[in-house]
Amino acid sequence: MAKGYWVSVYPANSDPERLTAYDKLAGPAVQAGGGRTLSRIPSRGGRVVAHEAGITQRVVLIEFDSFEQAVAAYESEAYQKALVALPDGVERDFRIIEGID
């Protein structure tokens, strides 16, 4: 079965303190849904090299055992509560993708 992934790129963040509030709710919701954070750059000290139209702002990659599990975690009540805490000053490109078997 192919794994599922959340891929989030944050081109703009004018309210980093409120983003922390989202993180505090989102982290437990992701874990409860079976997600494992593979990368959170730059907040965990990881490195990034951007090419083309890429940016070096925050990028988060989360792995789930299946695509369906990734979708269910996003739709969960706990994660929906976390989304409410996402500040207006944050621009985010969020996708749920299916991995290759």
Automatic annotation (TrEMBL):
Residues 3-100 form the DUF1330 domain. Pfam families: DUF1330. This is DUF1330 domain-containing protein. It comes from Streptomyces resistomycificus.
